[in-house]
Amino acid sequence: MKELNPTDPIGQNLIKLISNVCFSVFVFSVLIFTVIAITYQPPDPWESSRALTKVFTEVENATFKTDSSILKTGEDIATAPVASPIGSLVPITEASIEKSEEELEKNLTLKSGCEDLHVINCSDPKVLIAIQRFNLRTFKSIAFLDYQTPVNGSKPDECDVAWRFRNKKERSWRKYRDFRRFKMGFNDDCSYKVIHPGRWHSGLNARRPRSRINATGNGQKAKIAPSVRDNEINDTIPVMGSDSAFRRGKYLYYSRGGDYCKGMNHYLWSFLCALGEAQYLNRTFVMDLSICLASTYTQTNKDEEGKDFRFYFDFEHLKEVSSIVDEGDFLGDWKRWDKTHKAKIPVRKVANYKVTPMQLRKDKSSIIWRQFDAPEPENYWYRVCEGPAAKYIERPWHAIWKSKRLMNIVSAISGSMDWDFDAVHVVRGDKSQNKALWPNLDADTSPDALVTKLQGMIEPWRNVYIATNEPFYNYFDKLRSHYKIHLLDDYKYLWGNTSEWYNETTLLNGGRPVGFDGYMRVEVDTEVLYRAKTRVETFYNLTRDCKDGINMCSTG
Ligand SMILES: *[C@@H]1O[C@H](CO)[C@@H](O)[C@H](O)[C@H]1NC(C)=O
Ligand SMILES: *[C@@H]1O[C@H](CO)[C@@H](O)[C@H](O)[C@H]1NC(C)=O
Ligand SMILES: *[C@@H]1O[C@H](CO)[C@@H](O)[C@H](O)[C@H]1NC(C)=O
Ligand SMILES: *[C@@H]1O[C@H](CO)[C@@H](O)[C@H](O)[C@H]1NC(C)=O
Ligand SMILES: *[C@@H]1O[C@H](CO)[C@@H](O)[C@H](O)[C@H]1NC(C)=O
Ligand SMILES: *[C@@H]1O[C@H](CO)[C@@H](O)[C@H](O)[C@H]1NC(C)=O
Ligand SMILES: *[C@@H]1O[C@H](CO)[C@@H](O)[C@H](O)[C@H]1NC(C)=O
Ligand SMILES: *[C@@H]1O[C@H](CO)[C@@H](O)[C@H](O)[C@H]1NC(C)=O
Ligand SMILES: *[C@@H]1O[C@H](CO)[C@@H](O)[C@H](O)[C@H]1NC(C)=O
Ligand SMILES: *[C@@H]1O[C@H](CO)[C@@H](O)[C@H](O)[C@H]1NC(C)=O
Predict the structure, then answer these.
(1) For the CA of 123, the nearest ligand
(2) What are the pocket residues of ligand 5 if the criterion is a CB atom closer than 6 Å to any ligand atom?
(3) In which element (H, E) is residue 321 found?
(4) Which atom of ligand 6 is nearest to the CA of 316?
(5) Could you read off the pLDDT of 118-131 as tens digits, one per residue?
(6) What is the dihedral sign for C-alpha 24, 26, 31, 32?
(7) In this predicted model, what pLDDT tens digit does every residue of 428-463 receive, in sequence order?
(8) Is the CB of 282 under 6 A from ligand 7?
(9) Does an H or E element contain 286, and which?
(10) Ligand 9 within 6 A of 506 CB?
């Protein structure tokens, strides 16, 4: 501290003092702000990810434990619907219906309406308007995007109509199809009204056939598969193209690590770390689309290799929002280049995860190849994102959406209940057997406890969907005398060998049928649960036990 000089005017010293104080405050606040900025991390979709991060950073032998009956991904966490890259359709509203109605009135000044009473003309635009209005008022959770012109149903007073929609609870731009059969009638003023809407996918005549009926050489009609294939899915693997395109690229390549055949949560945690590093380094990530499904999710109870990423996740979305290339394609191009050119492709091999992404930022090599040869747990991909790197690498959660093919199943299940259902998430499995960590869970989710507790939360005879990891189908039978109970297994036909899903995954899998495994079940259960009107959770609503075990409620 400077000594006060008595010859100086007092004011000057005061000003000096004040400015010193101000400067300190300024420095201090900048410091605080910087600390906040550095430690700020965008929220992860997993409710217990904070606890997870702690587990991963503090315990050497990290194993993945999240609530294995629920899986949040990008489309569940975005704050606003993500816009379509192709240009999105504007949802139909009451106002837009009125507008087209007015337009119609103007054109039809001659026809007053009542002369054709009792004849339903499905191609009359007023029929469509009546149906649009009905849908808008009935299915409040749905954003209707576009309708096709109604066609005749099976009876004179029926019309079939198809449309595309989004569920307002899903925050992606993906569109789904429905086609229903409506029984139509007239109001007193001779305008059309809907007397009765058909069920989900009941409007068979409005279903757009994939291929048109064609006559064979014998004059017989060819058997056409009545397919409703979702031709909006384009998850073909992009190919790199020319040698020179390959040479110009900058790649980040991860060898297979200890993550292989671990649980799917572990897989995602690791994969998103790798993808995050690629984005940080502004490189194309070399991706292995072949996944090993851990035994906890398989029917055989053994790890199963060779599962396609696209069975579970939306590859179309991933390739749109991030730069990736298929591993097989990449390795082929690399080998070919090194064979045909004198100058090899510059490669930087990184043997240890302790080499941070920040250290690699300046590296000019075409390929950065991270190898994970160390013994477990030194060979997990996610370790790259530990420590100081955590402040620079953001896991791109928004890049992971669930497979559209599975989401079609979700739409079919919720649509068949007309989106008017409540849901209960019942966590049992290993947790209910672990009395040390979850002392009350088993009792609180017993059939009798469920009957008692749900009666206070859900109106009698509602549709109730139960998302659960309880394997015994009849476990919930007691609830059937109070509610219309729906379980995933009630919808087996949606993935059975006559289903659209079966056809499409078989095609994706080179002609070999794909089983509907435990992980797919979790994904579908999760999304149906999220579409319910009233949602009852095991933790918070059914039991006092904590989600992550005894005394862990605060970390939830
Ligand atoms: C770490 O894992 C190994 C192998 O699974 C096991 O033998 C060891 O006991 C574990 N260590 C700790 C601290 O959990
Ligand atoms: C009404 O007539 C105008 C011009 O005659 C036409 O442009 C418009 O498309 C018609 N609207 C409807 C809903 O048919
Ligand atoms: C049905 O409505 C369409 C469109 O308004 C019209 O072109 C057609 O002639 C009508 N058919 C009958 C049988 O009235
Ligand atoms: C639809 O039904 C009406 C009468 O019910 C009939 O006049 C019309 O020809 C039918 N249209 C088609 C395309 O079959
Ligand atoms: C119908 O069959 C003929 C010959 O078999 C073929 O040339 C034509 O493209 C087919 N049309 C459709 C719509 O499939
Ligand atoms: C599918 O997407 C790829 C780009 O990933 C594009 O090249 C291809 O044309 C698309 N196919 C269709 C049928 O839209
Ligand atoms: C990322 O790389 C591309 C091409 O490799 C380049 O055009 C772009 O400027 C880079 N962006 C950043 C932020 O480094
Ligand atoms: C479908 O599965 C059923 C029962 O598992 C079987 O009887 C039937 O032959 C299968 N159909 C086809 C086309 O694979
Ligand atoms: C699936 O494919 C089979 C054989 O190609 C066909 O008979 C069946 O109708 C298809 N099912 C669906 C729902 O597309
Ligand atoms: C479940 O618990 C949460 C948190 O306590 C509460 O907000 C919600 O209303 C409860 N749900 C029902 C259906 O009672």
Answers:
(1) 3
(2) 211-212, 214
(3) helix 315-321
(4) 5
(5) 788 899 888 999 99
(6) positive
(7) 888 888 888 888 899 999 999 999 999 999 999 999
(8) yes
(9) strand 284-287
(10) no
